[in-house]
Amino acid sequence: MELELRHLRALCAVADAGSIGRAAAGLGCSQQAMSTQLRRIEAHLGKPLFERDTVGVRPTRYGAGVVSRARDVLARAEAVGREPAEEAVHQPVLRLAATNSPILAGLVGRIRNDLPGLVVTVSSVYESSQIVDLLERDGLDAAIGVDYPGQELRHSEAVGHCGIVTEPSCVALPSGHRLRHCAAIDLADLAEEPWFVTPDDGAGWPGVFYAACEAAGFSPVLVHEFLGDRLQLQHMIAEGLGVCLVQATTRPIPGVIVRPLVGTPVRCRYLLAWRRASVGEELVAALRDSAAASYRSLMDGVPTRQARATRSHRGSPR
Prior knowledge:
Structural class: alpha/beta
Helix content: 25-40%
Distance between the termini: 44 Å
Low-confidence stretches: 311-318
Strand content: 15-25%
Order of helices and strands: HHHEEHHEHEHEEEEHEHEEEHH
Largest sheet: 5 strands, mixed
Shape: globular
CATH superfamily of the largest domain: Periplasmic binding protein-like II
Oligomer: single chain
């Protein structure tokens, strides 16, 4: 087979939806047809593009690079049919990716308002180590990633990064939990709880979680590994199936409460990384400022006790 634009659109749809069924519905075809098409594309390329699990699909390391390049091709293909006057105006493309961060939507919205001549394509890449790999190989121009104190992001001189904000992790509990009246919760008091823990993020998680538990004098008795959407996770917490460390920007649904942890035993830094050959200093500054503004906007919508527990720090470029 030969890859066509429709195949690239299908790959991007699956990556965006996180589900073959939802991607098929969005493109107006059956799930079976989408699955068959995806298998043919993977057979043609010779490597798996997506990993399947109980909650959907996510790109493999190889697949994330393919999807990123597919977005670039589609953006360029859209320019082919423009009128000559439009073609004369060069529109640069920024290939942007993000890990599991709520900052992305606000960042993209602000950049589009501030830099209307810039075409932004977006990819979801869970592992920060994979983000670095894509930046090193020219598969991305910029990305929002994470790291942890003492385990700062490592990369070559081809890549730069700067911190956006460092925040303490909070804990999400069922609203009827025995500790619901506490303004802040000691991690040791959750020693007997079942936990939801997301998989390895290529930056130090979940190692930092287990290290914090060990420092608090316990090892979790039951762990559910979970990589799904945040809303689904909150519904399971509301049902009393477990507790989970969450971002300080988390807005709890009915049935869930979010509390800071005593002593902030786990902290996470959100950062901007970019390929130096692709992104200039002015664009780096615009991306950093937009990301910081997006974070502040998110914090404006969370309960006061979460916001007060959070200490934000601007990072310096490297």
